[in-house]
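Onboarding guide, step 5: your first structure request.
Type a short instruction followed by the sequence, for example:

Predict the 3D structure of this protein.
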Amino acid sequence: MSETTAPRPVSFASLVQQFFTEYLVTQRALSPRTIASYRDAMLLFLDFARKRLGKMPTAFNLADIEPDLILAFLGHLEQERHNSVRSRNLRLTALRAFLKFAARRDVSSFYVIERALGVPMKRFERPILGFLSREEMLAVLGQPSDTWTSQRDHLLLAMLYNTGARVSEIIGVKVGDVVMDESPCVHLRGKGRKQRTTPLWKSTIQEIRAWLVRNPSLREDAALLPNRDGHAMTRCNVTQRLNIAVARAAMVHSSLAKRSISPHTIRHYLPFLTMSSNVKDSAGMFGIYYLLRLKAYPSTRHSFRLETVEET
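The system replies with structure tokens like these:
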């Protein structure tokens, strides 16, 4: 009677390759940004484990990924790389996703993987959301000069101000996404591949029209807010341009000099203005109506505020 041999376990290198090329891309169809985040987490972990274990990643086994190694890696992120707890948890999420995938490919490593998956997420305090007053926001917007960069930056900030969109949504806006007819609006593609439509103010539409007249070469599929090379701006570009605008505005409003203003701070300004406005009814009733509409129509949560209050 012939003896049956146990199948050889899948190599660690093969598991990593299958995780990215087959599982994340083909089976899960995750967004490129999510895959890039998982890739960065894996690269950081492999580099740390290489130094810790004294061998190359190609020689790793699943048995090497013990809870102590993962905890040491997470401590390294917080203490040496100065990552926030939120970033630490995101890296752990990527590792957990890989381990769960590996468990389905290598059943002989169930116990090892189960122990590694026991490393918990770390709790943290959520800071109070910051926002800008109307005067501070208008100071950041400022008045554009005649230069191409100044005109683009002003339109960038105006659209962030008008829509309350994420940076990724604004830099992803193409010329064809802007509707300038009777009901002007912009189509945004946001986090989690969600699409939404946000109304635009008359002042924003006028600025977009002037921008397109100045840049007649921008086609329907071109980025509305390009860099000098004609490509879409990056997050770093937006942050740099906002920092310049804030530094200029700080000369008028000294309070801005002591604050950390990010593009997300402008995103917080929109609901703040909505909840604090006194239009037709009291601010409290206005806020209640806003929240009810937000709950009923999450894809157009800014529409009530934009239809009712036109900023000047």
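Each response can be followed by summary notes, for example: DSSP finds 13 helices and three strands in the chain.
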